[in-house]
Amino acid sequence: MTEKRPRHSMLYYYLLVIGIMLVINLFISPWLLEREIINVDYNTFVEMVEDKKIEAVELDDQSNAILFKADDKIYETAMVNDPDLSQRLLDNDIKFNGTIIRETNPWVSLLLSWVIPIVIFVALGQYMSRKIQKGAKNAMTFGSGPLAGLGKSNAKVYVKSSKGIRFKDVAGEDEAKENLSEIVSYLHDPSIYKDIGAKIPKGILLVGPPGTGKTMLAKAVAGEANVPFFSISGSEFVEMFVGMGASKVRDLFRQAKEKAPCIVFIDEIDAIGQKRDSRLGGNDEREQTLNQLLTEMDGFEDNAGVVILAATNRPDSLDPALLRPRRFDRRVPVELPDLEGRKEILMVHAQNIKHDKDIDFLKIARMASGASGAELANIVNEAALRAIRQGRKSVCQSDFEESIEVVIAGYQKKNAILTDHEKLVVSYHEVGHALVAAMQNHSAPITKITIVPRTSGALGYTMQVDEGNHYLYTKEELENKIATLCAGRCAEELVFNSISTGASNDISEATKLARAMITQYGMSEDFGMVALETINNQYLGGDASLTCSYETQTKIDEAVIALLKKESEKAMKILKENKDKLDKIAKYLYEKETITGEEFMNILNNQI
Ligand code: ADP
Question: 287 or 3: whose pLDDT is higher?
């Protein structure tokens, strides 16, 4: 399905014209203009002069030659020192002007300099315009044939096969599956719905962060219902020429209606479905495409057997017209998986690799808190790759655990050479985090501390893993988290009396958390329950923008600074009170480089 892009054709057109002009001017014109010249000796020339055979003569000083014309032919002879030459020519009435020989047929030069270039331009222009017209015609009349040409939807038809994706392949996401199973049952037997007069939704919007299985779910609906599946990405509609996207939409719906019952899946619908506004430089093509999509959705009658699924991770940027009833009126959230969901996703993907029987998937799922389905699939693959690197035939528990760290923090850096002092500083820094976390209530237990540098730039890290799912955080828990984040820097300061660059990531995390507590969670006494920030792109990292006056912003900054100061003082106090434990564990970590949560707790409880 290759489509000849018009912008390429235009480029080819210009290059072709330039090429042809160069060939004409450099080769063809000189060749046509040049006439055959016969070389003769000077005696013959003199004889011909005297026989009055010569019509005209030209002296070419540059090439030191005499050119002359006789019997409509051109001759050339070498110029010799002949003082009588002029007299001889005059005596024989021979014309003596300098342009006879180079004179060309005026018709030929007219042809070369005007007629041929114009003909070429017109011919190529005609060819191009015919091609564009043909593309537009295809788009309007939905010409048959392969899915090529401008204005064709080029949607990929997902081929049904015995290996087609089913609901069971999409682990977790039970609510989404439940929601979509209604569509499956409708596609199986629309008559039940028609009989009772119920209308199935025309459009369903799958919203959620990237990699949570939206595309998979859409394919699974098609797989379960055993119907054709058209898949196209929103960005594929947008073309260089205004109107092409709209004709692609028309073509897509025409094909879908022919194949009904079927599913049309539009990925990244925000590429065309963004709010229309009167911003300067608005995108005409996008708006026309969106308008066409709206019209098409209204156009096909209810229960036509076409269900449109669309995926986006920016639902708040969609045009309200797209979300009104009988268009994309049903929204199915596809969220990040919870603990159980993560375990199931890991197990689904682990089916495809050879692994030991005694893998504790729950433990791995717990460690991979916050990971999306795509990341979990990646973790399983990384584990398999690690097993191969280590020359094993099957994947073991430690492969999975290490691969989580690879996905989170990058590969172990083999050649990073830290000085002994740096290693000690990192060791105190990490143990500082762990100790403060352990000494406060409501902190997630420590599972691992390491000071092996990673390719992501981390010189070490402390892993804390929650036992179960954690949806709500209290103010105290968040404060403790900030104190834990501050503790690394505090430990460095306490022990070495100097501070390093190693805490930059902690500082930015802690600041973000403190700011969110004040501006979003209403956890500050000064401001109370006022939303001072709004979150944009909730599913794409959630960048916040302030919605308050300049004076309040200054106060927020002051409150953030005060909160961080308070928590860092708290961390410092805990470390001072437990300085002997800090020393002991940091030295142990310095020797061992990686310690487990258990070892950490044992030293803490004076058991080692
Ligand atoms: P999205 O469309 O939400 O960005 P995809 O559906 O393209 O995500 O998922 C990308 C990959 O992640 C899939 O091919 C699959 O391997 C894996 N994946 C995501 N979610 C799940 C899930 N719930 N169960 C199994 N695999 C999943």
Answer: 287
